[in-house]
Amino acid sequence: MKNAALIIVVLFQSIICYGQDCSKEFTGKILDFHDGVPLNNATITFNNTTIKSDKQGNFKITGLCPISYAFTISHPDCNSQVVTVDISEVTNKVIYLEHHYSDLEEVTLETTNEIRDTNSQTEDQLSKSDLEKYSSLTLGDALKEISGVTSLSSGNTIVKPVIQGLHSSRIIIMNNGVRQEDQEWGEEHAPNLDINAFNKIRVIKGSGALQYGGNAIGGVVVAENKLTSLKDTVFGRTQIAASSNGRGGGASASINLGFNKGWSSKFQTSIKRFGDSEAPDYILSNTGVSEQNFSAGLGYTGFTGGLELYYSFFNATQGILRASHLGNRGDYARAVNSPVPLIINPFTYDINAPKQETQHHLAKIKGYKRFKNLGKLTAQYSFQYNNRKEFDIRRGDDRDKPSLDLDLFTNALESSFLFDANARFKKTVGFQLTFQENIPDPETGIKRLIPDYKRVQAGLFAIATYDLKDNITLDAGIRYDFVNIDAKKFYDKDFWEDRGYDTEFNDLIIADEGDQWLTNPVLDFHSFAISGGLNFSYKDQDKFLINLSLANRAPNPVELFSDGLHHSAAIIEIGDLRTKQENALKLSLSNESHKLLGNDYITISPYVNFINNYIFLEPSGSVELTTRGDFPRWEYRQTDAILWGVDINYGVDLTENVGFNTGFSYIYGQDIENNEPIINMPAPSFRSELIFDQELWNLKLVNTTVLQQNRFPDNNFTDDFIEDGAIQTVFVDVSTPPKGYTLFDLAGTYKFSLWNTEDLSLGLTITNIFNTSYRDYLNRQRFFADNIGRNFTLNFNFKF
């Protein structure tokens, strides 16, 4: 139909032109709308005639009749457009094309030439195959593929990332352009997002990406869900994974729709169901997981503006090892000192208390507008609702009632302007406003771990990049954030005096509630962040990065106000009203060299991080009696700390189809004030891969070796309890890290062609091949049980 229409137009124009004076000229210039730069070799097509613009973007068309013409203007990497011109009225025109059409970027996950958020800090990206391999697991599991990134876990289903020794509120997670707000302060609170919803995940190590926030002392995880490019297309994916350990699996499906008129959409859903996991020698009772997720996006991408709507839903129930929740004082000491869990039940899919139930809703609307020869304005509003329920082992009428029930509402408005008319010197300025309200449900009948509070944050930032030379890029940024926390909290009067609050904070008391004070802490924090660095390219592919950044982080509510039993962690957590801001000064370097021995490369990335008022949670050396039983007491405290380390990656192509990669990470964390190691620093680790890659199949043998962490503080204690009518004194070792371990994994994939090329792939992954028994220092369940044993996972991936 389109060809027929063009023929009719040409014939119609020929009839009209017959007998007319067809000696008119049409001249003009073709410029990049993005920065006003002339476009050389742009193509102007009309009536089966084609001409091209010169180096200055100029063009000239002669022999035209005084009628209307439809000119098709195109250029490599540009989005073509049709311009209709009446030659009887217009003989000269400036035509703009969008040459840097990043909004239409179609993500290719295997490439390394990606758009970066920073130029002078290390950025790593998960490959497409990594995302597919971890489809039935978690974000924290997948990010361990990156050197310098480990995980803090509570069993094998509650996993959160650790970047160069830092985690929780020190890491910002961006969920498709929205900062994730899901009670991330808890060490056993995994990110509430589905890895299957994203087609691109990358890690920025450090606080230099100031557009996301000034408190990312550890780094930023950017998870993106790109819509398809502007073309008529329909494609999708279905993936099914089944695993032997846990006797379950997951399934996900997505469909993408694209239209020529600028509209595109994507729909995705996934489910996951596992029963109890198994260590090599026993069942890890009550460690099942159930998860249901959904996301949908709709967008319009135009030449000068666009709009995007997005919604995601996450719903999960995660069991917590039954043996970690015990009744009396003697049981805790016996559990920590026992080589096997004190409670081992037969395998089941049931998920009973203790457990977590989490729901997370996220919605956003985002728009952009481009301005000729100036830049791009972006604005976004987002809303998030997070509900977290934690269930303890309760009796009677309360057995199905959560012990912790938190509702967190977050509204955020942000906008930025990118000045990019000068391709060598780009600037971005912006602001972010966030209002957050946390509402604990008083119907739990349990003392609230954290109080009702309202939190307001306002941030301003400016960042810039400057290409000093073709191979030298400088970047710099500055950010200011104001944080206000307005809380209502009850304190036991005895606790209030024991902590010394009566001498410092009596002005916070607003009511006398018998044996409790009702207080109204209103706290203000002013935070500044500065970052600057250099990216220097030399030889063919070699690169050197250096960055110096200063960042502040205001304490989160749990660090300030926690006061009671944290049920999912099975510990009593005590915060401190005196907690100050963290101040971090970090210097990071990275050098990437290629062809040292031929087809190889090596990247060495050392760093040092000085953190004043470093906040951490550690055992206080005591066990406290509660109505639920006896639990160890952990307290938040502050110190001045230094964290330094290095991440090393080496890769080589042994043959055309065989490659070898290896990585090493080391971090040294020291409490400067008390001259002792910092708790929960990742142990030195190696990760190596031997890869066989053919056209239709690939095979990967992976070795992970984690050394024993020999640097740790001594928080061991003795505990007295009555057993058989006599007082027993037991030494409780909660400090000594477990022994190091070595694991081997094997993964293979074979591709088939059904209707399209390589549209079906089958994969088999075997983790912990030799069924090694081990415990990991950063697994909170290491006190009670081993990590999981051997696991076979079969993956089915169909693309259409």
Automatic annotation (TrEMBL):
Q: Does the keyword Cell cycle apply?
A: no
Primary localisation category: membrane
Enumerate the InterPro entries for this protein. Beta-barrel_TonB (IPR000531), Beta-barrel_TonB_sf (IPR036942), CarboxyPept-like_regulatory (IPR008969), Plug_dom (IPR012910), Plug_dom_sf (IPR037066), TonB-dep_rcpt-like (IPR039426)
Which parts of the chain span the membrane according to its record?
Answer: none
Tell where it localizes: Cell outer membrane
Q: Which GO terms describe its biological process?
A: siderophore transmembrane transport
Q: How does it sit in the membrane?
A: Multi-pass membrane protein
Q: Where is the TonB-dependent receptor plug domain?
A: 120-220
Going by the UniProt record, its keywords in alphabetical order are: Cell outer membrane, Membrane, Receptor, Signal, TonB box, Transmembrane, Transmembrane beta strand, Transport
Coiled coil stretches, renumbered: none
Pfam families assigned: Plug, TonB_dep_Rec_b-barrel
Which PANTHER family does the record cross-reference, listed alphabetically?
HEMOGLOBIN AND HEMOGLOBIN-HAPTOGLOBIN-BINDING PROTEIN 1-RELATED (PTHR30069:SF29), TONB-DEPENDENT OUTER MEMBRANE RECEPTOR (PTHR30069)
Per the similarity annotation, which family is this? Belongs to the TonB-dependent receptor family.
**Name of the protein this chain belongs to:** Iron complex outermembrane receptor protein
